[in-house]
Fold:
Amino acid sequence: MITPRVTALAARLPAGELPAYVHDLAALDEHAGAVRAALPGSVELYYAAKANPAPELLTTLAPHVDGYEVSSGGELAHVREAVPGLPLAFGGPGKTESELRLALDLGVERIHVESEQELRLLADLADERPGRAPVDVLLRVNLPVGAGDLGGAALAMGGRPSPFGLDPRRAESCLPLLRGRRLRLRGIHAHLASGLDAPAQLALAARITDWARELDERHGLGLTEVNVGGGMAVDYARPHTRFDWTAYGRGLAGLAGRHPGLTLRIEPGRALAVYAGWYVTEVLDLKHSHGEAFAVLRGGTHHLRTPAAKGHDHPFTVLPVEDWDRPWPRPAALDEPVTLSGQLCTPKDTLAARVPVAELRVGDRVAFTMAGAYAWNISHHAFLMHPAPSFHFLR
Structure:
């Protein structure tokens, strides 16, 4: 769960630098390399920067990915500056005119079009640039799926009524809007769910690819790409288990073999970055209330919102600290369940509830694992105006 390098750093960090986010870039490099090796060469691997856009992570991933997926003008400019040499795919709903202009100015390689309105706006902006190469787009489609196909999903972005993507019938109505415009339809994008295992992901990928091929043949579009999205399962309750990239790679190879000439692309985020980050903090107080133990930690969900957002107990490791220089007894929880909460004035500031521990004392340090994605960057930093954590990147 925690690498020796992270344990060593967590032990020697001064209290003034806690809480701290610690990222093991060597572990990230190893994991990303294993993912890339499990995928066939015919499949492109993009990293969804929304999971964690830290430049240090982006550059560590660069040797292993074919590009990055961004979802705002801010991400677009940030990622282009951090890793200028790799392609970008610009997705997400509600793209503004200024964001689309920025995408064109920066030469974004792919734009995932979410609606007819967005397509019309993009076409007008592209037509303002005579003499430039056509803008390459994918249509994001919200395909219907069976009732059980998304049963294991942590989040469903499609397969049902949704603000994301185009209804399949509306996607077909977009085709005439492309004619005579400085746009080039490259293929189809569909990201329907997050949190699915390899068999479920493969079933969705086959559904998306078959639909795209049928659309292509019916209209003679000459499509060359299908992006089947990300959302590979990450299980916070079982941090030692990981998505079966080997089985997924084999399945994608078979799918690519059934559709020669079609490039498949995936865009995981959490499943690449989450295992290489830890949130390290310390126990400020430990009390018993109505028979239950509560450890109050420095920091909280304003730094690490993930457990509150997903409704789980975040996995952690206790790092004992022996020093105790106070003249009173050291508060402790011994062989009992403990709720780990933060410094915020709300009962929702809970990182883990009633988790059994052998021993936890005031002054001990706690390292929350699986904090490398959707952690600091999705948290409500300004609430109560506590200090920000420090950040450390082990190379």
The chain has a mean pLDDT of 94. The radius of gyration is 23 Å. Residues 87-268 form a domain with the TIM Barrel fold (CATH 3.20.20.10).
